[in-house]
Amino acid sequence: MKNRSLLLAFLFFSTLATQAQTPVKKRPISTKDIYRLQTISDPQVSPDGKWISYGLSTVDTTKDKRNSDIWMVSWDGKESVQLTSTPDGESRARFSPDGKYISFVSARQGATKGQIWLMDRRGGEAKKLTDLKTDLEDYVWSPDGKKIAMTLRDPDYADSAKTKVRKPFVLDRYHFKADVKGYIEKGSVHLYVFDVTTKKLDTLTTGLYDESSPVWSPDGSQLAFVSNRTEDPDRNQNTDIYVIDAKPGATPKQLTTWAGSDNNPVWSPDGKRIAYTRSTASGNFLMYDQPVLAVISRDGGEPALLSKTLDRPVRNPRWAKDGQTIGVLVQDDRQTYVGQYALADGKFMKVASGNRVFGDLETVSAGNWLTLMSEPHIPGELYAVENGTTRRLTHTHDAFLAPLELASVEGFTSKSKDGAQVSNVLYRPANTPANKKLPTIFYIHGGPVSQDEFSFDLTRQLLSAGGYAVVAVNYRGSNGRGLDYTKAIYADWGNKEVLDILGATDYLVDKGIADPDRLGIGGWSYGGILTNYTIATDTRFKAAASGAGSSLQLSMYGIDQYTNQYETELGAPWKNTDKWLKLSYPFLKADRIKTPTLFMAGEKDFNVPTAGSEQMFQALRSLGIPTQLIIYPGQFHGITVPSYQKDRVDRYLQWFDKYLKPKTL
C-alpha cells in the first residue's frame, strides 16, 4: 500500500512538472485585448525614496469606460500595494512631505467636481480635504506640508441656471474654441494657496491671464509658475516663468523674457536656480519647434541654454538630489532616452538609451532615477535607473502579454525621390517567412511634430495580427531628427511628407516585403490628413482609412482651434487665397482619387472637426468611389470610450480585408 501511495505521488508530481514545462500556447493579439490592457501613469517618489505611487487605469466593461486606481510599489520592486478601489476613480496621487499621507483627486460620493482626498498610509479610510466649487487643474504640496498650492479655473456662471437649459455662449475672444474645452468664454485659471489645517483658500492671482505649473521653492516662501501676460494671449504662443511670494497680495515677478515659450519650471535643491524648457524659436513660429533645457537664476537675468547645440527635443527636466546635474528625456530618431547635463561645465551624457522609449522621469537619490519605459513588445512599466542600468519595478502587463503572439518590430531607412533619408518602423506578423510578400498598411502618425518610436504600439500590433505588414513613417515634419527636418514642411503641407511615404513604399516593394498590388494607408489627425494627400497624389493604394482628417483646408479657418497657427504660417485666407487653395488639393482634385476610403471622426472634435471627414466622404460618394463615414458619438479628437476604440480597429481590419485580401473561392 505504501509503495502504491509513493507511485501515485510520483505520477502526480511528474504530471505537474510536465504541465509546468509545457509552454502556454500563444495566440495572435485581437481587438478584444483592448479591454485587457492596463495603463500606468503619473509615477511619484516618496520623500524617503522607498516607495513609488502611480495610477493604474483599467477598463470597466460594464460601464464602458476606464477607471483609475492608486497603487504603490517598493523601490526594491518586491512589494506592490493597491491603495484605492472604487468605481469613482482616483488620480494625481502625491506624497505629503513627511511621507505619512498620500493625497489624490477624485469625484467621489456623487461630487460634480474633483476634490483632494487625504489617505493615511498607516491605514484607514481616505478623508475629503477640499470642497472646491470649480475645476481643479493642478496642485502641489508645500515643503512643510502645511499648505497646498492649486490652480483653479474660474467658475462658469453661465452654466449655473436652475434648469438644465444652458444660457447662450457669449463669445468675443480671438481663440474662442478648443477641443474638449468646447467654446471658450471669459474666465481664466488662477493660483491659490490652501491651508491644510484651517481649510482656508487664499487667492494669489486674479485677472485675465492663466497661470499653470506651480512649483514651491525649497524654503516654501515662493511659487514659480507659467503665464502668458502679453496684451492678447490668444494671439501668440508666448509663455514666461514668474515667481510670486506665497501670500495674498503679492506681486508676481517675471523671470524670463523670451518671446517664445518658457515652460516646466523646476527649482534647484538649494533654491537658487530654476530649470525649465524654452522654445527654440521666438514669436509664433512654435508648431515646428523643439524645446531646449534652460537654467535661470531665481532673481532673473540671462538663462544658460544647456541643450542648445544638441538639436533634439528635451523635456521633463529634473534636478538630481545634489543639485549638480539635471536629468532630461531626449527624443532622438525613434528613441526617447534619459540624459543629464552637468551644471559645472555643461557637459552632456546619455544615462540610459537603446531601442526603447522612456516616458517619465523622477529623481530618487544620487545617480538614481525613476522612469516609465516601454519597449516594442512591452507596454509601459516602471523602472529604476541606477548608474545607467535599468531595473524593472512593476510587472503589470505580464498577464496581458502571456498568451499573446506579437508582431516583430524592426527599423529601416528609406530614401525619398528628392534624396531625403527617412527613418521608419516595420511590423511583421509573427512567424512570417522572411521572403513572403505581405499586404501592407502604412499607418501614419499625427502631429505632425511627433515621431513613431520603438515602443509598444497597440494599433499597429492589432493591424499586423490581421496578417499585414504595418509601416510607421517618420516623414519630414516629425521630430527626433533635428530642427531643420521638423521645419521642412512649413507652409508646404502634403508635399515632402507624401514623398517620404511613397519613398518608404518603394523601398518595401523593392525589398519584396510589401505586395505592390495590396497596399493600404491610414492614420488619425495629421495622419488622416496625410492619408488624404497621399491618395490624391498616387493611386497605388487599394484601400485607405482617414481618421479625424481634413482636405479643404480653406474651410477649416474658424471652425477648428488653429487660427493663430494658420495666420502665422499661411497668412489670412483673404490675403493668401492661392496658398490655401494649393494646400486643399485632396478636395479640389478629389476626382483623381480612386482609392476606396473609410472616413472617421469624433462628433465633438474641435481639433479637426467632423466637417473635414464629412466633406471628403461626400466628395467620394458623389464620385462613386466606395466610401463610408463613421462618427463616434460624444467623442472629442481622441477616442476614449473602450468599445469605440475596439470598433475603430475592427472597422480598419474589415475595410482593409475587403480590398487588400485576395478573394478565396
UniProtKB/TrEMBL annotation:
Gene Ontology molecular function: serine-type endopeptidase activity
Boundaries of every Peptidase S9 prolyl oligopeptidase catalytic domain copy: 455-661
BP GO terms, sorted: proteolysis
Signal peptide: 1-20
InterPro entries in the record: 6-blade_b-propeller_TolB-like, AB_hydrolase_fold, Pept_S9_AS, Peptidase_S9_cat, WD40
Keywords noted in UniProt: Acetylation, Hydrolase, Protease, Serine protease, Signal
PANTHER family in UniProt: DIPEPTIDYL PEPTIDASE FAMILY MEMBER 6, SERINE PEPTIDASE S9 FAMILY MEMBER
Functional note: This enzyme catalyzes the hydrolysis of the N-terminal peptide bond of an N-acetylated peptide to generate an N-acetylated amino acid and a peptide with a free N-terminus. It preferentially cleaves off Ac-Ala, Ac-Met and Ac-Ser. Also, involved in the degradation of oxidized and glycated proteins.
Listed name of the protein: Acyl-peptide hydrolase
Organism: Spirosoma radiotolerans
